[in-house]
Specification:
The chain is mainly alpha-helical. The protein has helices at 55-58, 67-86, 92-106, 113-125, 128-131, 152-163, 170-177, 184-195, 201-212, 227-230, and strands at residues 137-138, 149-150. It contains ten helices and two strands, in the order αααααββααααα. It has a two-stranded antiparallel ribbon.
Length: 233
């Protein structure tokens, strides 16, 4: 039950009680009030607003006032978000649909640019291109090779999820974007850099643990065949 109040600064007491709709009539039912929670939000004046945590990660600049500028800003934000979510740039058709989705929301009365963008972000996170690691292929015209090479973005994801158990970083995205990752020298340099990173510990924790089976040693009692192990020796 939202209630708008105008309060002066200072201490206030909040009281909740049940009053019969017909106070002059004997009540034959027992009334019980169970208050689960009460929240006070305010002040609501725009001059008192503060940005939520991590706001700048999603909206690095102020929202422009004009409709055309907002549409360009939304496209910029969604292009960057899709690059990370899909592990590759989104095609123009997909970006057009996402920008239109965001615009349909934030142009409604009392809606915000952020709420429209959030709707488009949600659609991206529901896409199979986010939920699964899809791969593009480098098909050479006229080639009879039955196993064409994966493209640079797919290779970047293969490397990062194998060595780091996570998505590519900025540098890996950059060499995938300029088309140089398939070059042997660049590929070797990136692998060396990734193996020298502290994130390489994921290779032993995740891949090796699943491959060799020792990740289940502490949780699966079937691995503890030795009676001494069961005694904690």
């Amino acid at each position: 039950f939202p209630i708008d109040c105008t309060w002066e600064a200072g201490d206030h007491h909040l009281v909740l009680e049940v009053e019969p709709l017909t106070p002059g009539v004997d009540q034959i039912r027992s009334l019980r009030l169970d208050v689960q929670s009460a929240a006070v939000r305010g002040p609501m004046d725009p001059e008192h607003w503060t940005l939520p945590a991590n706001y700048e990660r999603f909206f690095p600049r102020s929202v422009p006032p004009g409709r055309a500028d907002r549409r360009r800003y939304a496209r910029e934000l969604l292009a960057d978000f899709c690059l990370r979510a899909f592990r590759r740039p989104a095609d123009e058709t997909t970006l057009d649909r996402l920008v239109e989705m965001a615009e349909q929301v934030y142009t409604r009365p009392a809606a915000t640019f952020e709420s429209g963008s959030a709707q488009a972000f949600t659609a991206v996170l529901c896409s199979p291109r986010f939920l699964f690691r899809t791969e593009g292929l480098e098909v050479v015209e006229g080639s009879a090779d039955p196993f064409p090479q994966v493209d640079e973005y797919a290779l970047a994801s293969r490397l990062s999820y194998f060595l780091w158990s996570s998505m590519p970083d900025e540098e890996l995205f950059a060499v995938a974007d300029d088309g140089s990752l398939l070059q042997e020298e660049v590929l070797r340099r990136q692998i060396t850099r990734m193996l020298n990173s502290p994130r390489r510990i994921a290779l032993s924790k995740n891949f090796a643990g699943q491959w060799l089976g020792f990740a289940a040693l502490r949780t699966d009692p079937m691995y503890f065949r030795n009676e001494a192990w069961n005694r904690g020796v």
